[in-house]
Specification:
It is a single chain. With 220 residues, the protein is α/β, with parallel strands linked by helices. 50% of the residues lie in helices and 17% in strands. The protein has a single domain (5-219), classed as Rossmann fold (3-Layer(aba) Sandwich). The protein has nine helices and eight strands. A hairpin with a 2-residue loop joins β3 and β4 (75-80). It starts with a strand and ends with a helix.
Length: 220
């Protein structure tokens, strides 16, 4: 298959990452999790205990950190300054802060630069909130995954498998994130006009992957 850039957007827990990973494996493409990149920045802020609302402090941090992806036993891992932080970036406090700093121009500018560098040679699948609208508006294929808040919350709850976190808490957090992601002034969550919209409510991961794959096969 050609050197395509494939963009997958959608709200939190809509199945973007899992579907993107499965599709990347099927196509033998590189998968880039942009959400993990924002989480890595959020983790760096928390670990360094910096005042991220101070522009000078934030810029200094952004200029000093290194983010990279490495495939380990066929699983994509994210490294922050040479340290594997794939598990740490899933902590609730990191998730919350990542959604907040996603509205900061300095953070978006830094990561946009990195994301476009990752995708310059094609053969990538990138998922996030604004891949098809901002990062790669000329992507060869664009998909927008959707799903009800309740079903998305159930997916995230099962994924976390943490008895200390309730389904209701996760649902409330998703409602907050949806509102925050959709209403921000910079690169809000929205469907690109030329994106295929995919309702994942009644689809398994395998069905989602195969559905996107068939569209690519039919259109290429």
């Amino acid at each position: 298959m050609g050197n395509y850039i494939i963009a997958i957007d959608g709200p939190a827990a809509s199945g973007k990452s899992t579907t993107a990973k499965g599709l990347a494996k099927l196509l033998n493409y590189t998968y880039i999790d942009t959400g993990a990149m924002f989480r890595a920045v959020a983790l760096a802020i928390l670990e360094e205990n910096i005042d991220y609302q101070n522009e000078e402090n934030l810029n200094e941090l952004l200029n000093s950190i290194n983010i990279e992806f490495r495939l380990i036993k066929e699983v994509q891992n994210i490294f922050l300054n040479g340290v594997n932080v794939s598990d740490k970036i899933r902590l609730p406090e990191v998730t919350k802060l990542s959604s907040i700093i996603a509205t900061y121009p300095a953070v978006r500018s830094k990561l946009l630069e990195l994301q476009r560098e990752f995708g310059k040679n094609g053969r990538i699948i990138m998922d996030g909130r604004d891949i098809g609208t901002v990062i790669f508006p000329n992507a060869d294929f664009k998909f927008f995954l959707t799903g009800s808040t309740r079903i998305r919350a159930e997916r995230r709850w099962k994924e976390l498998n943490d008895p200390n976190v309730s389904l209701e808490e996760i649902e409330e957090d998703l409602i907050w994130r949806d509102k925050n992601d959709s209403s921000r002034s910079i690169a809000p969550l929205q469907k690109a006009v030329d994106a295929y919209e995919v309702d994942t409510n009644d689809m398994s991961v395998e069905e989602q992957v195969n559905y996107l794959y068939r569209i690519i096969e039919d259109k290429r």
